[in-house]
């Protein structure tokens, strides 16, 4: 929890300096491309029909990129994940994580103000290397909001809050029966974006 609070405080500190300049910032040019990385912390819950689960603070990171159709819309792809237990090359029986591969769309509803809402859908994957763990995959969704401000002509920072959820299928075997496996996560993150192509 302490690690998550520090990340959240950092994002709010960045945002406090950005707010006065929101109306002055260009968003993106039509026909331009963008790519970037994201880092943050989330409150992740794994649950099933047999277990309600509980939220755990996790480290979040990912990569994303796509194409801008003008000042109001950009679309792209996002690969991100949350680490619950570090994997160890010397010990294949440890490690647990959740990851997503999604198509995303960012909508900027106010002209020349870089506040955006994000929606996306794709495939989620759960990996558990413990002997009693079972991997799984299924559909996943995300929704969030943030704002992007330029720190350089082609480089922007975008503090965000997002919610994601998805399903991992069932486990049926002589040892374990677990149905309706799913996850949900609320995360605070910072996107670092680079714009290229047409002049931004």
Structure description:
A hairpin with a 7-residue loop joins strand 1 and strand 2. 30% of the residues are buried. With 200 residues, this protein is mainly beta. The protein contains one helix and nine strands. The protein has one domain (2-196): Porin. The chain has an eight-stranded antiparallel β-barrel.
Structural key phrases:
200 residues, 60% strand, 8-stranded antiparallel beta barrel, elongated, Porin
End-to-end gap: 38 Å
Main beta sheet: 8 strands, antiparallel, barrel
User: Rg from C-alpha positions?
Assistant: 18 Å
Strand content: over 45%
Task: Give the name of the CATH architecture.
Answer: Beta Barrel
CATH topology: Porin
Q: For the largest sheet, list the strands in their spatial order.
A: 1-2-3-4-5-6-8-9
**Poorly predicted residue ranges:** 10-25
Question: What's the helix-strand series?
Answer: HEEEEEEEEE
Helical content stands at under 10%
Overall structural class, as computed from helix and strand content, comes to mainly beta
Tally of individual domains: 1
Overall pLDDT: 86
Number of DSSP E strands: 9
**Helix count, DSSP H or I runs of 4 or more residues:** 1
Task: Reconstruct the topology from this structure.
Blueprint: H1 2-18, E1 33-47, E2 55-68, E3 73-85, E4 96-107, E5 115-128, E6 136-147, E7 149-150, E8 155-172, E9 177-196
Antiparallel strand pairs: 1-2, 1-9, 2-3, 3-4, 4-5, 5-6, 6-8, 7-8, 8-9
Explain briefly what this protein structure is.
The protein is mainly β and 200 residues long. The chain contains one helix and nine strands.
